Amino acid sequence: MVRKATCNSHGQDSSYFLGWQEYEKNPYDPLTNPLGIIQMGLAENQLSFDLLESWLASHQEAVALKKDGEFMFRELALFQDYHGLPAFKTALAEFMSEMRRNKVEFNPENLVLTAGATSANETLMFCLADPGDAFLLPTPYYPGFDRDIKWRTGVEIVPIHCSSTNGFKITKQAVEEAYRNAKKRNLKVKGVLITNPSNPLGTAMTRDELAILINFITAKNIHLISDEIYSGTVFGSPGFISVKEVIKGRDDLTNKVHIVYSLSKDLGLPGFRVGAIYSENDVVVAAATKMSSFGLISSHTQYLLSVMLSDKDFAKKYIVENKRRLEQRHRLFVSGLETAGISCLNSNAGLFCWVDMRHLLKSNTFGAEMELWKKILLKVGLNISPGASCHCQEPGFFRVCFANMSEGTLNLALQRLKSFVDSDSESNNYNHCRLPSLPKWVLRLSPSDRKSER
Questions:
Q1: What is the pLDDT of residue 419?
Q2: Contact 341, 421 (CB under 8 A)
Q3: Is 190 labeled as catalytic in the residue annotation?
Q4: 142 is annotated as an active-site residue
Q5: Average pLDDT, the chain
Q6: Which residues form a coiled coil (predicted)?
Q7: Which of 24, 25, 217, 317 is most buried, with most CB under 10 Å away?
Q8: Taking the model in full, what pTM does it have?
Q9: Who wins on pLDDT, 69 or 3?
Q10: CA dist 198 → 167, 264, 367, 387 (Å)
Q11: What is the pLDDT of residues 3-29, one digit of tens each?
């Protein structure tokens, strides 16, 4: 096979993805497999499905692909221009504004539709960088970026190392150091990519952090991509600040700042594969639109969601209620962790927490982090994501998701975790799930492999 198809830059061998493989072999089910692995490594929002289902039940005409009593089937079944349905782009642009409390507006003509945020981020890499160029990313960052950014584009990622000493906030010193490291590697830096709110930290970026980045890209004459797919999950203060709000009135930056959005997290629709690029750079929009033909959103999906998002009363109520439920679930999860003697980063957004388990490590090493992760995955029966898979420089942190399961399942997960912490962590007698011996891939994730993981 060709080199591109077989190279290991996809990141599929990361513990982030390997944990999923173990879960799929032994998934928890309250009735058929109560001792199975509970999936806490998947950032899905299942807390507000009933709101969406209620809307669908009361709008059968849209579900049946009808408009004013007439079937839309033939129109939608035929070839659609890859610019997307105008009605959907308008509805999506207005929904994005609503998510940002209407402090900014989005022009539908500057939206490029993509099959999810994965496609959006990769498309922007193709548009903004050549193979061998680099983008700076603050750590810890979403493990999938190793696939989305690097695998097919040939673009390199240079980490901006953030520290627990200040809650992993971005600093001017860290950004400048990352830029110097890229130059030492003879890499041409084309931009910075951030997730705001952060995945995996669950924190909304402050205005000061955004100002640091804006000043930096202005000085270096490079681009900034703000992945804002969690913008509607901010349930606490300080509230969400979009980069579009920060650069408002800065005509010198409109060509350099680009936003990625999707409906996977805010609406909980990752299976619908709805993403978008927003850019006011005409060249980027033109190039991304041409590339979008490789990852289109079905006309059926666009039509249905255009009707749903155009229901302004529903959209506003959904945003408010979804945030309320996320806040309630977050409070329950954090309380359960505290009962188990575990703390996490103070967060205000997202579908997960950045959990601090450093006190459970046998040593302050990534090897010890992997050993702890193996126990939690294979003996406790919880799939969580090690900090090393998120390129965190400090061992002992884990991303743990709380919104992709029922409250009962979450309580069970917290009970399992507490039992594990309360037990003798040095003992090998903890056999809660009676899982088999360690698979070969787990044995390969030894301390000597940490260099490639980091």
A1: 95
A2: yes
A3: no
A4: yes
A5: 88
A6: none
A7: 217
A8: 0.89
A9: 69
A10: 12, 15, 26, 14
A11: 655 555 555 566 777 877 888 899 999
